[in-house]
Amino acid sequence: MAKAAWVTGGAGGIGAAVARRLAAQDYRVLVTDVDEDGGAAVAEEIGGVFRRCDVTVPDDSLSAVSAAVSEFGGLDLAFLNAGVATRFGLEEGFSPEAYRKVMAINLDGVVYGVHAALPALKARGGGNIVATASLAGLTAVPFDPIYGANKAAVVGLVRALGPVYAESGIRVNALCPSFAETAIISTVRDALIGAGVPLLEVSDVVAAFDAILAGQGTGEAWFVQVGRAPEPFAFRNVPGPRTGAGDKAPSADTSVQAAFQEG
After folding, report:
1. Fewest beta carbons within 10 Å, which of 26, 59, 118, 204?
2. Which phi and psi (to 5°) does residue 223 adopt?
3. Domain of residue 45, CATH code
4. Which tens digit of pLDDT belongs to each residue from 32-81?
5. Whether 147 is catalytic
C-alpha cells in the first residue's frame, strides 16, 4: 500500500518542491493551500489531490486530513509548511495586528495541523510530522522579530512534542532553512544579495527534508545552511538547579528536572 502525505502551503516554493519529491517516492500526496489555482496545478502535475485549506481555521485542517484518509486510506506524513513573513521589517512599527496575523499562520497553523494529523497517524501505527520553522527560530532576527518569535515557538513546540509521541511511533521534527529562493523573500532578495548573503536552492531544503525522514530522531530542529550538510541543531541544556550556595543539584532524576538539567 502506497504511503500518503499531506502538504500545507503546497502551491509553490518549498511545499511544492517537497510534494513533487514525495510523489517521486511513490507517496500519494494531498496538496493544500489557500492559492487554489497554484495548489491544484501542483496536485495535477504530480497525480495528487488538492483541497483548499486555510491553516488558521482548525476545521480546514481537520477536513484536509479527512480528505487524505478518504482518498488514500490513511495518512503517514504531515508536512506543515504553510507560512508567511512580516514583510521582513518593522516599517509599520511593532504591530499587534501584524503579530496576530502572522502567528495565526506560522504557529497556530502548525498547532492545528498537528492536532488534525495525530489521530490518522496513530491509526496508521506511526508516521512523521515535519514542520517548517526557520533558521530564524534558532537565532535572533532583529530585522523581523515577530517572524523570529513564531518560528522559535514552532521549534519549541516540536522539541517538546517529539518525546511525547515517540512511543506511538510518531516522529515530530522541524525543518529550519536559512534564506531560500522562494517567494517569501521576494521583497528583500536584492538586499540580501547586495549584502553578500548566500541563498539556498530549494533543492537543498528538499534534501534536508529527505534527511529528516531518513533519520531516527524526534523532537529535532534541522538547520539548512549553504555549503553545510543538514543536521539537527545541538541545543545546550540550561544549568541545573541548586539548593543553596555551592550546593549541587538534587540527585533525584525526575523527568522535569532531567529536562532542565545541563548535561
Report:
1. 26
2. -85, 150
3. 3.40.50.720
4. 999 999 999 999 999 999 999 999 999 999 999 999 999 999 999 999 99
5. yes
Q: Are residues 157 and 132 in the same domain?
A: yes
Are 46 and 11 part of one and the same domain?
yes
The single residue of 27, 99, 112, 147 carrying the catalytic annotation is: 147
Give the pLDDT confidence score for residue 256 in this predicted structure: 43
Range of the domain at 258: 238-263
pLDDT averaged over the chain?
89
- The pTM of the full predicted model, rounded to 2 decimals, is 0.89
153 and 71 within one domain? yes
